[in-house]
């Protein structure tokens, strides 16, 4: 594939480095390769990089999926980053700052940094694109976000999905859109980076809430109510932070929320279900082998809400259950007995 814009040198394929060889890093690396990019995955572990290079399979995450020939792996950040047009970050949100500080000196000049992460940093309440700009010292125009209803296990099976590619600079968004567009993966562009990132981070928290309700056996009316009111509180926060409210009725908002809240493949939903069934936090953490971002980000989302003076009762309830040991039944009673109010306020 030649580069999708005239600004880039012609004559070689688009190159992408993907830092993080877990579920989404591996799956998105496959999407990029299927779209014609040359992809280098960065892995923490040599055995995993070796396995990918020799068997074309990531045995830890997708043992039944053969990765395209144009995907290779390395543990050397400089080798992964070399000459990359896109540098994709797919690690747990709370580890981004430290990791990126180490990788920053190796980044290819002019590379576009792409966040796949759906979290908010604890302590600073910063979105991932803000952390990237700060640590890599790049302008917002060189930072993009890919988000939407993209459960990695379905993507590696090449099942159809749409997504959002967001960047303040629409030309950059279009370049990335072209670099990851395949017959099964349909990316739309958006310039509302704030809204797209908030949609992804808060849906994990609402996914936990819906999971808890499912685990408690509260039924589908409760689920529909939580999804809708969850979207309402996400939109309230977004408005306070300057996002476009329409973003939340799109793929980064409603689309992702519906997929997460209805799928047993969602780690956040499953985490919540286990809590709702009566497992303790420690037991639930022990059986969750992958990243469930909402568990940490519920606190940073609530922090953001307080900084912007926004009421987020479902997020507050999730923090109460997950981090303050509040029994789900007590939390439910509190949520249901809040003062009556109009729907749109
Ligand atoms: N799995 C999915 O379906 C989707 C995940 N995401 C987001 O992508 C991000 C990554 O999630 P997944 O790939 O699913 O997680 P994962 O748990 O499957 O993989 C995380 C990867 O990061 C690495 N890692 C863990 N701790 C690290 C550290 N301290 N330093 C460096 N590397 C570390 C792991 O070795 C692994 O390669 C999250 O923010 C998640 O919300 C977004 C869309 C879909
Ligand atoms: O973000 C996701 C789908 O788009 C994945 O959700 P989980 O992290 O809850 O598995």
Q: How would you sum up this structure, described in words?
A:
With 345 residues, this protein is α/β, with parallel strands linked by helices. The protein has 2 domains: 15-191, NAD(P)-binding Rossmann-like Domain (Rossmann fold); 195-336, N-(1-d-carboxylethyl)-l-norvaline Dehydrogenase, domain 2 (Orthogonal Bundle). The protein has helices at residues 23-34, 46-55, 77-81, 96-103, 128-136, 152-156, 170-179, 193-216, 220-240, 251-262, 267-276, 281-287, 294-307, 313-323, 328-336, and strands spanning 15-19, 38-42, 71-74, 86-89, 112-115, 143-147, 161-167, 185-190. Helix 4 packs parallel to helix 5 and helix 14 runs antiparallel to helix 15. The longest helix has 24 residues, at 193-216. The protein is globular, with a radius of gyration of 20 Å. The termini are far apart. The relative contact order is 0.11. The chain binds 1,4-dihydronicotinamide adenine dinucleotide (NAI) and 1,3-dihydroxyacetonephosphate. Residues 118, 149-151, 204, 207, 256, 259-260, 266-269, 293 line the site of 1,3-dihydroxyacetonephosphate (13P).
């Amino acid at each position: 594939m030649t580069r999708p814009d005239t600004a880039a040198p012609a004559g070689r394929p688009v190159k992408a480095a993907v830092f993080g060889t877990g579920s989404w890093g591996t799956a998105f690396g496959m999407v990029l390769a299927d779209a014609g990019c040359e992809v280098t995955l960065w892995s923490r572990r040599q055995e995993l990089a070796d396995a990918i290079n020799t068997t074309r399979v990531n045995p830890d995450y997708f043992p039944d999926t053969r990765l395209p020939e144009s995907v290779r792996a390395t543990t050397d950040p400089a080798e992964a980053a070399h000459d990359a047009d896109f540098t994709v970050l797919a690690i747990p949100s709370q580890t981004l700052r430290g990791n990126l500080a180490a990788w920053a000196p190796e980044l290819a000049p002019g590379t576009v940094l792409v966040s796949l992460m759906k979290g908010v940093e604890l302590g600073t309440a910063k979105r991932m694109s803000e952390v990237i700009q700060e640590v890599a010292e790049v302008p917002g125009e060189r930072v993009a976000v890919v988000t939407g209803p993209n459960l990695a296990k379905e993507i590696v099976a090449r099942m159809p999905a749409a997504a959002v590619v967001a960047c303040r600079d629409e030309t950059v968004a279009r370049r990335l859109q072209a670099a990851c567009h395949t017959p099964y993966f349909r990316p739309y562009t958006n310039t509302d980076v704030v809204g797209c990132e908030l949609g992804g981070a808060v849906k994990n928290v609402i996914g936990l809430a819906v999971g808890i309700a499912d685990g408690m056996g509260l039924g589908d009316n409760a689920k529909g109510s939580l999804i809708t009111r969850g979207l309402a509180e996400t939109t309230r926060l977004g408005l306070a932070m300057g996002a476009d409210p329409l973003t939340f009725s799109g793929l980064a908002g409603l689309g992702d929320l519906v997929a997460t809240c209805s799928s047993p493949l969602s780690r956040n939903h499953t985490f919540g279900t286990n809590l709702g069934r009566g497992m303790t936090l420690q037991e639930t953490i022990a059986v969750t082998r992958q990243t469930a971002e909402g568990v940490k980000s519920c606190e940073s989302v609530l922090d953001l809400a307080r900084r912007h003076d926004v009421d987020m009762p479902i997020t507050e309830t999730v923090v109460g259950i997950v981090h303050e040991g509040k029994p789900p039944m007590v939390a439910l009673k509190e949520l249901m007995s809040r003062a009556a109010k109009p729907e749109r306020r």
